Amino acid sequence: MEQVRRCEWAGSDPIYIDYHDNEWGRPVHDDNKLFEMLILEGMQAGLAWIAVLKKREAFREAFDGFHPNKVALYDETKVEELLSDAGIIRHRGKINAAIGNAKAFLEIQKEYGSFDRFLWDYVGGTPIINTPESMADIPASTPLSDRISKDLKARGFKFVGSTIVYAFMQAVGMVDDHMVWCPCHTHNRGKA
């Protein structure tokens, strides 16, 4: 059986490989999925992404499927419930940020018709296709992620620093940072 050469970060964990092969770098336009990824990227701050991926199903259950209209209504009782849930990352600041971010997310939906429209306008509706040869070619942030981060913060979002925003942009396919030789890179998809 031929070994597939993937981006180095995908490693050998089946959860990571599945995420790399089927999600990362693929354009997302569903608002609930965009909200989920924004919250999960914020939860990841200071941790390894694999830790978040392994808790993803527990997060989905604990956060009502990441429906922003539900998360926006969470009160202190719900925060305490989440803080006692061993299946998720129990960080009061990140949990409170998720609730505040849900409220800000809903405001953007109201203003733009969808979060998708607001977000994808930054790239003119078309993903940025990079051609990195190695991990050293991938930045932690860019002037565009700086701008989006600043705009989100101005709208009341938390845990949306430029590095988190750039990781989010990669995750939802606004940016394709798969290695140029990776079969998941936009230019290689569908090639045998």
Please give a quick description of this structure.
The longest helix is centred in the middle third of the chain and has 21 residues, at 92-112.
Q: Class, according to the CATH hierarchy?
A: Mainly Alpha
**Low-confidence region ranges:** none
Number of helices in the DSSP assignment? 10
The CATH topology is: Endonuclease III, domain 1
Level-2 CATH architecture: Orthogonal Bundle
Portion of residues within helices: 40-55%
CATH superfamily: Hypothetical protein, domain 2
Large-scale geometry: globular
Structural class, by secondary structure, is mainly alpha
Order of helices and strands: HHHHHHHHEHHE
Structurally, the number of domains stands at 1
How much of the residues is beta strand, in percent?
Answer: under 5%
Q: Which strand order do you get reading across the main beta sheet?
A: 1-2
Q: How far apart, in Å, are the first and last alpha carbons?
A: 15 Å
| Average pLDDT metric | 95
- Gyration radius, rounded: 17 Å
Taking the sheet with the most strands, its summary is:
2 strands, parallel
Topology diagram in text:
Layout: H1 14-22, H2 31-44, H3 49-54, H4 56-62, H5 68-71, H6 76-83, H7 92-112, H8 115-120, E1 128-129, H9 143-154, H10 162-171, E2 175-176
Parallel strand pairs: 1-2
Helix pairs in contact: 2-7, 2-10, 9-10
Description:
With 192 residues, the chain is mostly helical. It has a single domain, classed as Endonuclease III, domain 1 (Orthogonal Bundle). 51% of the residues lie in helices and 2% in strands. The chain has helices spanning 14-22, 31-44, 49-54, 56-62, 68-71, 76-83, 92-112, 115-120, 143-154, 162-171; strands at 128-129, 175-176. It has a two-stranded parallel sheet. Helix 2 runs antiparallel to helix 7 (92-112), helix 2 crosses helix 10 (162-171) and helix 9 (143-154) crosses helix 10 (162-171). The protein starts with 13 loop residues before the first helix and ends in a 16-residue tail after the last strand. The mean pLDDT is 95.
